[in-house]
Amino acid sequence: MELPEPELIRQSWRAVSRSPLEHGTVLFARLFDLEPDLLPLFQYNCRQFSSPKDCLSSPEFLDHIRKVMLVIDTAVTNVEDLSSLEEYLAGLGKKHRAVGVKLSSFSTVGESLLYMLEKCLGPAFTPAVRAAWSQLYAAVVQAMSRGWDGE
C-alpha cells in the first residue's frame, strides 16, 4: 500500500523526532485520557500503576514510549515500502495480543497519535498532513492486525 504524500510524513515527523520522549509522553497521556482501561495492561514486576501520571514517569514505561516512537520512526523511514515491514509488524501485533491488548484499542492509539502531531506541529498540521498520517497509521495497524489472525 503506497502513501500519497511521503514527503509530508517525513517533514512533519522531523519536528517530532527532535524530542521523541516528550512527544511520545503526550501521545500516551492522551491515550490514557481516552481509554483509562488500558492502564492495567502496563505492569512491571507485577506492580500496577495507581494513576496514568505514575505510569508515565516510570523508567520501564518511558522505555516503552521510546520503543513505540522508534516503530513510528521505522514506518516513516520505510513509508514508500511498508510491505518490507510486514513480518516485523505482524510480530509486534502478536506481542501486543499476548499481553491482552485488543485490536480495537489501536483506533484510540491512532487518535492519540494525531492529537500528539497536532500539538507538536500547530498550524503546520494541515488536513493534508492529517490525511497522510491517517493512511500511514492504517497501513501499520493493518500489518499488525495479522498478529491477531488465527484466533
TrEMBL record:
Taking the first listed entry, what is the main subcellular location of this protein, grouped into a coarse class?
cytoplasm
Q: Which InterPro entries match?
A: Globin, Globin-like_OT, Globin-like_sf, Globin/Proto
* Keyword Cytoplasm found: yes
Where it sits in the cell: the answer is: Cytoplasm, Cytosol; Mitochondrion matrix
Q: Which Gene3D superfamilies match?
A: Globins (1.10.490.10)
Give the CC-aspect GO terms.
Answer: cytosol; mitochondrial matrix
Keywords, A to Z, come to: Cytoplasm, Heme, Iron, Metal-binding, Mitochondrion, Oxidoreductase, Oxygen transport, Transport
> GO terms for molecular function, please?
heme binding; metal ion binding; oxidoreductase activity; oxygen binding; oxygen carrier activity
Q: Where is the Globin domain?
A: 1-149
A Pfam family this protein belongs to? Globin
Q: What does the record give as the reaction this protein catalyses?
A: Fe(III)-heme b-[protein] + nitric oxide + H2O = Fe(II)-heme b-[protein] + nitrite + 2 H(+)
Q: Which SUPFAM superfamilies match?
A: Globin-like
Highest taxon above the source species:
Eukaryota
Complex formation: Monomer. Homodimer and homotetramer; disulfide-linked. Mainly monomeric but also detected as part of homodimers and homotetramers. Interacts with 14-3-3 proteins; regulates the phosphorylation of NGB. Could interact (ferrous form) with G-alpha(i) proteins (GTP-bound form).
The family classification in the record reads: Belongs to the globin family.
Free-text function comment from the UniProt entry: Monomeric globin with a bis-histidyl six-coordinate heme-iron atom through which it can bind dioxygen, carbon monoxide and nitric oxide. Could help transport oxygen and increase its availability to the metabolically active neuronal tissues, though its low quantity in tissues as well as its high affinity for dioxygen, which may limit its oxygen-releasing ability, argue against it. The ferrous/deoxygenated form exhibits a nitrite reductase activity and it could produce nitric oxide which in turn inhibits cellular respiration in response to hypoxia.
User: Could you tell me what this protein is called?
Assistant: Neuroglobin
Q: Please give the organism.
A: Leptonychotes weddellii (Weddell seal)
User: Gene name on record?
Assistant: NGB
